[in-house]
Design a protein that fits this description.
With 294 residues, this protein is α+β, with helices and mostly antiparallel strands. The protein has helices at 4-13, 57-73, 92-105, 158-168, 176-179, 185-191, 205-216, 238-241; strands at 29-33, 36-46, 77-87, 110-116, 124-133, 149-152, 197-200, 218-222, 250-254, 265-272, 278-280. The protein folds into two domains: 4-133, 2-Layer Sandwich (60s Ribosomal Protein L30, Chain: A); 149-280, Alpha-Beta Complex (Phosphoribosyl-aminoimidazole Synthetase, Chain A, domain 2), CATH 3.90.650.10.
């Protein structure tokens, strides 16, 4: 029996037969009512995994909001509210300040939530984000078709460099990509009517491309020379950056004759399934593909 995150999700699929759950193969639930679709997502963050011990609580709050809104962005959804699950800690006022900054920046209201306190140690927070679909059908991971072009909205690796700078106390390097990611909400809305598949890059380009390929029963062939990276990233770290995650760019596929309506980089193509759900320069990638819990 599979264990860890993949194994647990497999067990949960038997408990989630409702079509709104999308077979738990997407980052959101899509609930139709009347002529509208409600897009719902919930993400958690854990101390020592998603943020560093002692990190500014305002940045933690921002990232919690931004990562959940990124899931809405990948569906072309317009945020309509969030619910917070918060573990009380040493600097709740800073968390509240950062939460307010994020809510104002992304023009989304706080609708409620819950607070808890517990034993000392690693804390975790959760957030549920609600959105209104701007296009129906709502894009999923499962629509990529052979012949489509694979695109990404921006570089991978900036969050990795930001994390290292923050960890090492190196203020000469901008750490904002890790601390305060920017969900591609406007881009997702522009893309939703055109894409065949779309998701955000949260766990790493390679593992997320593999997930899209698996959901679509195809192979995503990535040309590593076409993948955008930060200018400051050493060339010998590009493979590492493609597996690091936390970039929150949108990965999407378009029909071959469809140009992207926004700035984005074409990084590969969709093939009939061969060997693996993702290829790098024609071969299945070796080693770590991205972050996976458990």
């Amino acid at each position: 029996m599979a264990t860890g995150e993949a194994g647990f999700i497999a067990m949960m699929r038997a408990l989630a037969p409702d079509p709104a759950a999308r077979a738990l193969s997407d980052d959101v639930a899509v609930l139709a009512f009347g002529g509208e679709c409600l897009v719902i997502t919930h993400d958690m963050m854990v101390e020592g995994v998603h943020w560093l011990a002692g990190q500014d609580e305002a940045d933690i709050a921002w990232k919690l909001v931004a990562t959940n809104l990124s899931d809405l962005a990948a569906k072309g959804a317009e945020p309509i509210g969030v619910l917070l699950g918060y573990a009380l800690g040493p600097d709740d006022a800073r968390f509240a300040a950062g939460l307010g900054e994020a809510l104002r920046a992304f023009d989304v209201p706080l609708l409620g939530g819950d607070t808890v306190s517990g034993a000392a140690g690693g804390r975790s927070h959760g957030l549920t984000a609600l959105g209104r679909a701007t296009h129906i059908p709502v894009p999923g991971r499962n629509g990529a078709r052979p012949g489509d072009t694979l695109w990404i909205t921006g570089p991978v690796g900036a969050a990795m460099l930001g994390f290292e700078a923050l960890r090492d106390g190196n203020s000469a390097i901008d750490s904002s990509a890790f601390r305060r990611p920017q969900p591609r909400l406007a881009e997702g809305i522009a893309l939703a009517p055109l894409v065949s598949a779309m998701m955000d890059v949260s766990d790493g380009l390679l593992i997320d491309a593999q997930r899209m390929g698996a959901a679509s029963s195809v192979t995503l062939a990535i040309d590593s020379a076409a993948v955008p990276f930060p200018e400051s990233l050493p060339q010998n770290r590009r493979r590492e950056a493609m597996a690091w995650g936390d970039d929150y760019e949108l990965l999407f596929t378009l029909p071959p004759d469809q140009p992207s309506p926004i700035f984005a980089c074409a990084i590969g193509s969709v093939l009939e399934y061969r060997q693996d759900n993702v290829l790098i320069d024609g071969a299945p990638p070796q080693g770590r593909l991205g972050y996976c819990h458990g």
